[in-house]
Amino acid sequence: MAHYNGRSYSELTKGGFFLGLALFVVGAGSELVGHAVFGSLPQWENTLLFALTLLGFAIGFASPFVFGIVMPLLE
Fold first, then answer.
1. What is the pTM of this model?
2. How far is CA 71 from CA 18, 53, 68, in A?
3. Where are the chain's structural domains?
4. R_g of the chain, CA atoms, integer Å
């Protein structure tokens, strides 16, 4: 197995998952708190928070597969 000076695949997997989890929590939590505190939010904020939630879900779901399974097999 080749040795790289950069980060290992396990660190990339964990970091990508936790980045996705953080984006998801910020997007979903901000949307829930924003609606609870302010009632209705402007449409651009709803779109931004929804996109943040989807992006966080996609990154958190894909990161373990890409960096944990696919990349080590391609090495």
1. 0.84
2. 18, 26, 7
3. 21-74
4. 17
